User: Which sequence fits this backbone?
């Protein structure tokens, strides 16, 4: 189908930047799988360069992102840069012939997401969004329960994820870098609601409390699906909380740690009439599973689990929610995405 495969069994990965998630999660995860080898890291130098050398001692260190993209020792790149830089560097990586795993949210703009998906398709390259929770055994089990219609037809789903970020210099809350609670943690909620209904929302309405630089600090939204309603609640100024509840015609599914079960494990509780069952899940290694899925998709020349269709659906939904909140809660129709 014109897709570009890698010559070796192990995908050689370059990382743009030294974000905490890159050094603390992705590089250690790569060291525990034979599917991925971190061969290059681009960093500005100084302490970050030393940190990169310590985390990935076998990797070549580049002073510039573009220099890494030109390396013949790199098959694919991981992009953990601030949100506003995701599409820009994805397009540059694709132009350089590299497969891309980009951190969530891939984009908060549907048109930009479509440009990247189109570029990847035309270049025969794999494009994946970094929602590692989707590869956790807990989420895989949730998908199984939904496919089996364990609770009947889904009518409502409520997703919440919030925490407090106190550092005003944290890129996750800087408006100019497309930071804010929806982009930081609310995007998980959006993705989970789309998963719960198995379809795309048709209308969105939202309210938010915005900081002076335009970033949303508190956010609440409603998504209308053909089958029912989904509710998003997220924050970067509150105590930590995460929960997903899916209500169907015949029961209810509740997850107490739907997005970060890797921290301390999680549970899935299924309630049907007078019967309640609870399944427990360990922390597991979703970042390792994410890298392995990325590598498999490249080798098998197919879309990854969180590939173009998910990227477009997430982007158009996030964009509509933000536009609604900035318009005082006006209900907005969601336009269909381009071809995934």
Assistant:
């Amino acid at each position: 189908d014109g897709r570009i495969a890698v010559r070796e069994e192990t995908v050689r990965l370059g990382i743009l930047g030294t974000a905490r998630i890159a050094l603390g999660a992705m590089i250690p995860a790569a060291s525990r799988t034979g599917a991925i080898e971190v061969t290059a890291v681009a960093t500005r130098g100084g302490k970050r360069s030393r940190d990169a050398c310590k985390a990935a001692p076998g990797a070549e260190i580049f002073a510039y992102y573009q220099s890494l993209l030109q390396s013949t020792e790199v098959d694919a790149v991981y992009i953990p840069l601030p949100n506003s830089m995701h599409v820009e560097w994805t397009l540059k990586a694709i132009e350089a012939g590299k497969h891309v795993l980009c951190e969530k949210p891939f984009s908060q703009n549907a048109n930009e997401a479509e440009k990247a998906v189109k570029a990847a398709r035309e270049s025969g390259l794999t494009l994946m969004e970094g929602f590692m929770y989707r590869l956790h055994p807990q989420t895989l089990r949730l998908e199984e329960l939904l496919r089996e219609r364990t609770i009947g037809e889904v009518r409502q789903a409520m997703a919440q994820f919030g925490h407090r970020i106190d550092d005003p210099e944290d890129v996750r809350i800087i408006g100019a870098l497309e930071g804010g609670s929806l982009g930081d943690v609310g995007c998980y909620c959006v993705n989970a609601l789309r998963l719960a209904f198995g379809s795309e929302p048709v209308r969105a309405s939202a309210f938010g409390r915005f900081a002076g630089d335009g970033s949303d600090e508190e956010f609440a939204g409603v998504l209308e699906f053909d089958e029912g309603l989904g509710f998003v609640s997220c924050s970067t100024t509150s105590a930590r909380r995460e929960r997903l509840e899916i209500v169907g015609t015949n029961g209810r599914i509740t997850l107490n740690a739907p997005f970060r079960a890797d921290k301390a494990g999680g549970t899935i509780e299924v309630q049907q009439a007078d019967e309640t069952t609870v399944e427990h899940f360990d922390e597991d290694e979703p970042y390792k599973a994410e890298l392995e899925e990325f590598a498999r998709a490249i080798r098998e020349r197919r879309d990854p689990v969180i590939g173009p269709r998910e990227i477009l659906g997430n982007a158009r939904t996030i964009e509509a929610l933000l536009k609604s909140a900035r318009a005082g809660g006006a209900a907005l129709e969601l336009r269909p995405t381009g071809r995934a």
Notes: The longest helix spans residues 308-326. Residues 11-133+288-306 form a domain with the Rossmann fold fold (CATH 3.40.50.720). The chain has a mean pLDDT of 95.
